[in-house]
Design goal:
Blueprint lengths: L12 H17 L4 H8 L3 H14 L4 H15 L2
Helix pairs in contact: 1-2, 1-3, 2-3
Length: 79
């Protein structure tokens, strides 16, 4: 998806999954508070918390999601 779509209000599965992965990675790899992550994405801290919990629950169940997160983390940490 296009980066701009992450900041939209779209509820399409591909967009919301990408947005939730951004929230999860931001929480995991930064010291930003949930409120700050949410503000940058036009969401509330509760939405960020929900997204992080959802990704945590889905990771052991969905191989593709786990691979995508691992690939993104590798790319982020190599920068």
């Amino acid at each position: 998806i296009e980066v701009d779509q992450i900041f939209t209000k779209s509820r399409k599965r591909e967009v919301s999954d990408a947005r939730q992965m951004v929230m999860y990675l931001a929480k995991k790899h930064t010291k930003m508070p949930l409120k700050a992550i949410g503000t940058r994405l036009g969401r509330t801290h509760a939405t960020v918390l929900y997204a992080c919990r959802l990704i945590d629950e889905r990771l052991p169940l969905e191989k593709k999601l786990s691979e995508d997160i691992a690939r993104l983390e590798t790319e982020l940490l190599s920068v």
